[in-house]
């Protein structure tokens, strides 16, 4: 396997993120991703779920799972990504299935000893990756096996998905990400993306197990969290900036998603 091919199938990245929202695109990804929280705390929004994370949490993303991060303060993390085709090159279908079974869980909570062990394993992988050592597939398998061993997961509603990313769905998510601050509806999404409403609902149900409007409101709430954490904007100003027609509706949706009112959320993160 040449270096370009190797780098397209596997990547590992250390990041220091500042307080506030991750500015990268809220989209779908073909790869499996493992996120290690090594310092600080943050909030993650999956397709349909809000979750607070802390040091020692490991987050597992299957292909087609959209996600976005927001930091309560500066935080550090490691992203490990690998494609399904990379594992297929080295393992039988049965072994591959067993290795990937841990992705049926979204989050693994590791105690200090287990997390330190995982960080050492990731460091070994990182060194092999930097040296373009194609034995990285063994490092990845070791990490997946260890995660399965210590796994005490939170429930995950949707199974591991190997469906290819749907271009129509990607277009819809891009449209929502760019226009969440406006008073848009499913009709607007249909018109601008040139996709029928019935097909939009079917795409969200089949791929993300949610509805278009619930997904839109989750995006709005994530941006609202960012504004609440990083500015002194009033609750009404936050609601308006995030596309909500009224403060009361914003507060209702915010509490549904986070189990807190906007004011409680802001005070709890100070």
Give a brief description:
With 270 residues, the protein is α+β, with helices and mostly antiparallel strands. It contains twelve helices and nine strands.
Round the Cα radius of gyration to an integer and report it: 19 Å
The number of helical runs is 12
Q: In terms of per-residue confidence, which ranges show pLDDT below 50 for 5 or more consecutive residues?
A: 153-164
Write down the domain tally: 2
Strand residue percentage: 15-25%
* CATH-derived topology of the largest domain: Jelly Rolls
CATH superfamily of the largest domain: Regulatory protein AraC
Q: Tell me, what is the CATH class of the largest domain?
A: Mainly Beta
Could you explain how this protein is built, in words?
The structure is a single chain. By secondary structure, the protein is of the alpha+beta class. The protein is built from twelve helices and nine strands. The chain has a five-stranded antiparallel β-sheet. It has a four-stranded antiparallel β-sheet with strand order 2-7-4-5, covered by helices on one side. Strand 4 (42-45) and strand 5 form a beta hairpin. Helix 4 (112-130) runs antiparallel to helix 5 (136-150) and helix 9 packs across helix 12. Mean pLDDT is 83; it is low at 153-164.
